[in-house]
Give the backbone structure.
Amino acid sequence: MTLLARTEDTFFNGRIKVLQHRGGYRFSIDPVLLAAFSAPEAEDRIVDLGTGCGIIPLILGYRHPAVSITGIEVQPELAMLAAQNVEANGMKERVAIICGDMRLLSIQAVSGPVDLVISNPPYRKGRSGRINSHPQRAVARHEILATLQDVAGAAARLLDIGGRFAIVYPAERITDLLTNLRSTGIEPKHIQTVHAKSHDPARLVLVSGIKGGGPGAAVHEPLVIYRPNGTYTDRAQAMFDP
């Protein structure tokens, strides 16, 4: 089976179709959580750093038809896939995909500055743990082509003063995350931990910040994904309902 072998999956009860590489990186629940947490405002101009197959632009484009979105993806095969997903779902007028390195991305490339930047970045440090032998998965999971500092720096560069940045990240790296955001001028304002079940430790953290914002953050009620019987909680299920 080759890298380019694909599957066609559906989302929102078939209202969105998503092509993914069968053997490459495939999105999980994390970008779904982030899309809901990001809470775009009407007519926001949005950039998704590391868009992968384009799942976050597809979700936001469906949920918020007045926004415009640019997805940035450094891996050409994924960028091509994301563009095909955008076209297949009839969103070409509102969603653009750029194949490029976020570290080199200029404001002019996205007709910025923008209102909202979103990212589901690689979670693991470049030399930590076992790196996946599949290059597409490795780049998506490890800081090989972009570090956390690169992501925060790109977000700060693209945002207007008062613009928002939303990110999902491992809870165990929350100190790294908050430190990097503040160092780039993005002040953390909203923090929500994500737990598989109610008594489990936090696996992820959702954080949003404001470029040029003053100090002071709200810590929200934890988000629990599964009931004890393994079904989605009402809050999690609502993220999958059309």
Notes: The helical segments are 30-38, 55-63, 76-88, 135-141, 148-158, 174-183, 234-237.
